[in-house]
């Protein structure tokens, strides 16, 4: 039976720095949703919580337009089709993914949804993590931007997160020596014991810089998820012709005044390269990455963890977790 009302979470104001209790607004609205021609009515099951969402709150030029004030917060969502409009290609009960946002229910055009084809050994949540945007980001960032080769030294920051944990594992599979950087001893233990990296460093340790210099020395590829001080330090650790993959800079997302990089001239002396990318650039090539990622997920060699926060009402609090490092694996 259709509900009489449903909940959605909209953007109330643009945060100046971190997300606050007044950034988002919870709205309970009457249920008046009906799919039209070629449309579906979906019920949300899981929403992906991504650092990029913080960027979408800023009124600034980026690869996607900002979320408007009053609009449902943008998010990639796994949902169940509960009703189809005339001529829809979907069937009631299909599980689909799409940018449906923080709302319990929504009506969308067929073209905005993609059916999830389940495979043995793979669970639905994998399509928001290793077989979704973060897995694809890890794959194309490391192979196409980092151009990692067997025997090279790879360093990964944000290593216990959704993207970083996949980067570490692909690096190992390709024969690189992988060093990880993360924000707690528990995360470092997981990276060393379960994911098999050579060594993991807690960047909050007072001996981080000395430990890193001693154990790693210099690097060929740095996959950067965090920016800021760690990126600046890695600029002093480059081998000749090193590549820095600029995937993300979460340490700077909550500040209007990023510190900047004082060590960038090492790029000149080491003839090194720093290159940003956005995963969507590789959209045409997703199938080739998904062949590898699915095979590794199915044979169990791609380890993954999920951090699930229950309840749409808790989505704004969940977004803050990314900035306090409360998640291991995909949030
Ligand atoms: N370029 C692209 O197309 C693309 C696509 C997807 C994601 N990204 C970027 O990739 C990065 C990782 O995204 P994700 O979804 O995989 O998130 P995630 O790594 O699962 O979660 C974010 C992690 O960042 C770490 N962190 C937070 N504040 C930090 C700080 N000040 N200094 C150092 N580390 C900090 C935390 O771990 P610790 O406990 O280790 O601090 C936290 O768990 C983000 O920067 C994101 O924007 C880029």
UniProtKB/TrEMBL annotation:
Keywords, ordered alphabetically: Oxidoreductase
Residue ranges annotated for the Enoyl reductase (ER) domain, each copy included: 18-331
InterPro entries associated with the record: ADH-like_C, ADH_N_2, ER, GroES-like_sf, MDR_fam, NAD(P)-bd_dom_sf
CDD domains with a match to the protein in the record: PGDH (cd05288)
Pfam families the UniProt entry points to: ADH_N_2 (PF16884), ADH_zinc_N (PF00107)
GO molecular function: oxidoreductase activity, acting on the CH-CH group of donors, NAD or NADP as acceptor
Name assigned to this protein: Enoyl reductase (ER) domain-containing protein
Organism ancestry: Eukaryota, Fungi, Dikarya, Basidiomycota, Agaricomycotina
